[in-house]
Design brief:
Layout (H helix, E strand, L loop, with lengths): L2 H9 L11 H12 L9 H8 L2 E5 L6 E6 L6 E5 L13 H6 L3 E5 L14 H9 L1 H5 L2 E7 L1 H9 L8 E5 L5 H11 L4 H15 L8 H7 L4 E5 L8 H10 L4 E4 L12 H12 L16
Parallel strand pairs: 3-4, 3-5, 5-6, 6-7, 7-8
Antiparallel strand pairs: 1-2, 2-4
Helix pairs in contact: 1-2, 2-9, 5-7, 10-11
Length: 294
Amino acid sequence: MNSHLIEAARRAGLTVPAGPLDEAALGELASALYLRPARTRRPPREEGYLEAAQPFTLASPAGGLAAWSWGAAGRPLVVLVHGWEGRGSQLGSLAVPLVAAGFRVVTFDGPAHGDSPGEEASVPLLAQVIAGLPAQLGPVHAVAGHSLGAAGAALATTLGLAPRGLVFYAPPLWQRGRLDYAAGRMQLSPAATRAFFAGVERRTAWPLERVDMRVVARAAPCPLVVFHDPGDADTDYAGSEELVALWPGARLVPCPGRGHNRILTTPEVIAATVRFVAVLPRPAPGLPRPSSGV
């Protein structure tokens, strides 16, 4: 009996079956726990970012998501995507500078995050949300994604999203590596680990080997810049080095001392993001780029 896993599942509000659990049941419980984020409170600073935004509801495969928009409709659209257990407002420091540079900015709380409904979240589900944005909002000029949001944005390009450029902050490299780490933290046996991996695949309806930034990197769908702290304790900087090495023309900007989340409010990172997005090619006036939704 894995008491560590069972206690964690109960704290997360999951129903734990009565009686002794075999390895298959432990793996299934682990998959439910792994895909269940904790909701975090929006601090006053982020509330301030949203005061200048227009709230709306974004349709998605997971239901109506809480979303916000800055800037006039018709401008090139930049989408901001938060990470695991985050909120769209975490990237709010980018909104005003991007609007000042001539863009419309949209962010949202992903499934099971912030003010949006749901109990489970995953990279494939987030990718489906992002890939569906052009059908509702028009062509996407660029996506800036943090951590899980970066992985979701990358995977969305395999579903038809065609941005002019991507910006990643502290991205993970591949889901299997995260699962290996989680299995160790949950003290799973080899048999329970196999059941855990199978449970994640079943719940997300997505093969683990496809949730891999390296698959996208080899296709290099558009220009990319990556910002990452070499000392980040949540996502491995070496993974970003590998990603950029595989993605032709991509650039990695080390941000020492900024950690996993503070990187989003670093003035130099914000300014560099705006510069990168601003020089991406735009559709000629009167010739809008066709939408690329799924």
